[in-house]
Design brief:
By secondary structure, the chain is an alpha/beta fold. Helix content is 40%, strand content 21%. Bound molecules: adenosine-5'-triphosphate (ATP). One of its GO terms (molecular function) is ATP hydrolysis activity.
Length: 326
């Protein structure tokens, strides 16, 4: 059985005639990373807030792990769901350790267990344990967002709701936190619903994209499937800008090497720059172009394992374009 089942969920705010979320139905499997994508005002946040009952649905039904979300008090439901928002929601007057411990304390964990959990979480989100005694204002935006993530994970919820958590961060910090989140997800297998209106972020993170427009779901599928066959012109427009680069950001240097004789040992090459198998082809393209269009060696565990040239990238792109339009 699916982990989350939404059945005709609807929210009409008081005094409004048009629902913000209109008869939305979907199923999400345990451990899936689902990204809600769509333009401003399409109902992403409203949908997310119906899942942890910050908003009560006007109509429809929601099952989480087989249990009707209305069958328990909203506060209890919320303690079982991690929630991360753009403004972090950290309590400014509480130290980092106190912020992280909020839910475990509500759940009346004993002191030793809470202390151990704070250390474990700081390690997980790669913040120094010395930050325990600081206040949120003494941390950078990216660090505060890591604390927000640690706090949401504190009581080990199986479901995480994340509403534009990286929206206010600069591009580099944002990319790092996206990597961290993927790493944490691979380790902890949480079910994640993540709201963004950044297409690149959505393509990078999602197992499946839930694309919304004006309170409705217009498509719910894997990133490659959506790129390959957008449901309509709206989806095509939403995803088509820089389409080629986006496609390349879904593929890695290792994918391209697999196509071009992986394992081929190369003669020593005096290029300064090297690529790694896990780099995206988008990064590889940028660096190959920066190197004047010269092929760059790919290095894994200190060994040369192949090279990436503009031709390699072009051939992968042609191949995927054909595959995508088949
Ligand atoms: N508390 C509220 N009262 C009345 N209308 C609301 C309320 N919250 C949201 N809305 C309306 O519901 C619609 C959906 O809003 P929502 O915040 O869910 O959109 P969103 O897709 O998350 O947008 P954004 O990407 O800008 O955050 C909008 O038209 C908004 O004005």
């Amino acid at each position: 059985m699916a982990f989350i089942i939404a059945d005709r969920l609807t929210k009409t705010f008081p005094g409004e005639t048009r629902p913000a979320v209109d008869q939305v139905s979907f199923e999400i499997k345990k451990g899936e990373f689902v990204v809600l994508l769509g333009p401003s005002g399409c109902g992403k946040t409203t949908l997310l807030k119906m899942i942890n009952r910050l908003y009560e649905p006007t109509e429809g039904r929601l099952l989480i792990d087989g249990v009707d979300a209305r069958s328990m008090p909203a506060t209890e439901l919320r303690r079982r769901i991690g929630y991360v928002i753009q403004q972090t929601g950290l309590f400014p007057h509480l130290r980092i350790e106190q912020n992280i411990a909020v839910v475990p304390q509500l759940l009346k964990w004993d002191r030793a267990r809470i202390e151990a959990r704070i250390d474990e979480l700081l390690d997980l989100v790669e913040l120094p344990r010395a930050y325990r005694k600081r206040y949120p204002r003494q941390l950078s935006g990216g660090e505060q967002q890591r604390v927000g993530l640690a706090r949401a994970l504190a009581a080990d919820p199986s479901l995480m709701l994340m509403d534009e958590p990286f929206g206010a961060l600069d591009a580099i910090t944002r990319a790092r936190l996206q990597d961290e989140l993927l790493r944490i997800q691979q380790r902890l297998h949480k079910t994640i619903l993540f709201v963004t209106h950044d297409v690149d972020e959505a393509l990078r993170l999602a197992d499946r994209l839930l694309i919304m427009r004006a309170g409705h779901i217009v498509q719910f599928d894997t990133p490659l499937a959506v790129l390959a066959a957008p449901a309509d012109d709206f989806v095509r427009d939403l995803l088509s800008t820089d389409d080629v680069l986006r496609r390349l950001s879904l593929l890695t240097v290792a994918d391209a090497l697999a196509d071009n004789g992986a394992g081929k040992r190369l003669a020593e090459n005096d290029a300064q720059e090297t690529l790694q198998p896990g780099d995206t082809l988008r990064e590889a393209l940028i660096r190959v172009l920066r190197a004047g269009g010269q092929a760059l060696p790919v290095v894994a565990n200190g060994q040369n394992v192949g090279e990436i040239s503009p031709d390699t990238i072009a051939s992968v792109l042609t191949r995927t374009t054909h595959a995508l339009s088949d």
